[in-house]
Amino acid sequence: MMGAAVAVCRTLGREDYSDAIALYRDLSVDVPVADGALGAEMFGALIDHPGTSVLGADIGGRVVSMATLHVLPNMTYGGRPYALVENVVTLKSHHRQGLGRQVMEAVAATAWEQNCYKIMLLTGRYNVAKGFYERLGYTAGEKHGMVLRRAHPPPP
């Protein structure tokens, strides 16, 4: 890590849409990202969804790193919720500055404050991010992540 950047970790709002869309584009170079009016609508739906928050690292009014946290109700573990993390991304221009770590620590603190008993995430099998998550305490040996994808979206 070069040097930790001074950032404020906070929950994102609708006013952060333009920064968020830039981050989603950095994350999803091969996958279409909803943008424009549809993107703004979907981002609003995401941040308004009960149990969901998008946490980001803000440097001087610009969000340069973020992650989506879903806290989900549960019946096991005494009814304690669990958390799912998605779309963890830092702008390429801000890599190796400790921003992803700051965001993920904010994600964990938020999940623990909501009494979650675990936090889950998926990352690419052949991806340097695996080591990043392991350094944060995440383990891969306890469970196996599996994904079922729909080949094409249904027609409108």
What do these coordinates show?
By secondary structure, the chain is of the alpha+beta class. It has a single domain, classed as Gcn5-related N-acetyltransferase (GNAT) (Aminopeptidase), CATH 3.40.630.30. It is 29% helix and 22% strand. The chain has four helices and five strands. It has helices at 17-27, 36-48, 99-113, 129-135; strands at 8-11, 52-59, 62-72, 82-90, 119-121. It has a five-stranded mixed β-sheet, sandwiched between helices. It is globular and about 40 Å long. It starts with 7 loop residues before the first strand and ends in a 21-residue tail after the last helix.
Gist?
This protein is globular.
> Which bin fits the share of residues in helices?
25-40%
How are helices and strands ordered from N to C? EHHEEEHEH
Principal-axes geometry comes out as globular
**Which radius of gyration do the C-alpha atoms yield?**
16 Å
Low-confidence stretches: none
Give the full name of the CATH homologous superfamily.
Gcn5-related N-acetyltransferase (GNAT)
Please give the CATH class.
Alpha Beta
Distance between the termini: 46 Å
Per the CATH scheme, the topology name is: Aminopeptidase
Note the beta-strand portion.
Answer: 15-25%
Number of strands: 5
The largest β sheet comes out as: 5 strands, mixed
Which secondary-structure class do the elements indicate? alpha+beta
CATH architecture: 3-Layer(aba) Sandwich
Number of domains: 1
Number of helices: 4
Oligomer: single chain
Q: How do the strands line up in the largest sheet? A: 1-2-3-4-5
